[in-house]
Amino acid sequence: MDTTTSRSAARVEELRDLAERAGRELEDADAVDILRWATDTFGDRFCVTSSMEDAVVAHLASRARPGVDVVFLDTGYHFPETIGTRDAVATVLDVNVRTLTPARTVAEQDAEWGPRLHERDPDRCCALRKVAPLERGLAGYDAWATGLRRDESPTRADTPVVGWDARRALVKIAPIARWTQDDVAAYVAEHGVLTNPLLQDGYASIGCAPCTRRVAEGEDARAGRWAGLGKTECGLHG
Ligand code: SF4
């Protein structure tokens, strides 16, 4: 779904200007202050997305605005631990967890495209199971927040704390863009934030089970995603 259809060109222009200005003004702001700006500015038309690798951004957002929407994309291929983390987040945090699902179940996709599409054409699999449902799910919002960090990979090194998501015509907020992995660990320890148990089992970055493996000591955190397939991103952040 084209998220621009329900907005006038003037509104889209206004949102883009707002994003570019806020990106400059909030570059040095604390993560909670960035999220407070977002919730004050967009109200119910703002959500946080979470892969349920950890609940850091959901926790930060609940401090900025209790009851905030936290959107989780259930591709049908998640580890049970990831689904369990989502359920725990919904129970423990003062947030409204919304689960998005693809148009087709895994069985329906297998019937249409053949089994294990993720092995043969992971870009198409991600397009069907991640990109399309997220676009439908974000259609009711003006702004969304992610847990992207600049230190995660070269493709994320320039992530602005507030930027313009041109593809979806949405304001995109990365409140922990400037954080390091150590900052995340310190926040988790200080606030007792929920984390996916797989992080204690050799996984450093957690996505769908068929496309995620453990990483070796010293290996890059995202090396365990789509290993051997020459793919580094799912298309959600392109
Ligand atoms: Fe499919 Fe793998 Fe992408 Fe998940 S990460 S949607 S299983 S290709």
Report what the structure shows:
Helices cover 38% and strands 11% of the residues. Helix 2 crosses helix 3. It has 238 residues and is of the alpha/beta class. It has eight helices and six strands. Iron/sulfur cluster binds next to helix 7. Iron/sulfur cluster (SF4) binds next to helix 7.
Classification by helices and strands = alpha/beta
- How would you describe the shape? globular
Tell me, rounded to a whole number, the average pLDDT.
Answer: 93
Sequence stretches where pLDDT stays below 50 over 5 or more residues: none
Summarize the structure.
The chain is an alpha/beta fold.
Question: Can you tag this structure with a few keywords?
Answer:
single chain; 238 residues; alpha/beta; Rossmann fold; six-stranded mixed beta sheet; 8 helices; 11% strand; globular; binds iron/sulfur cluster
Layout of strands and helices, then pairs:
Layout: H1 9-25, H2 31-42, E1 46-49, H3 56-64, E2 68-73, H4 80-92, E3 95-100, H5 106-113, H6 117-120, H7 122-137, E4 143-145, E5 162-165, E6 170-173, H8 181-191
Parallel strand pairs: 1-2, 1-4, 2-3, 4-6
Antiparallel strand pairs: 5-6
Helix pairs in contact: 2-3
Bound molecules: iron/sulfur cluster (SF4).
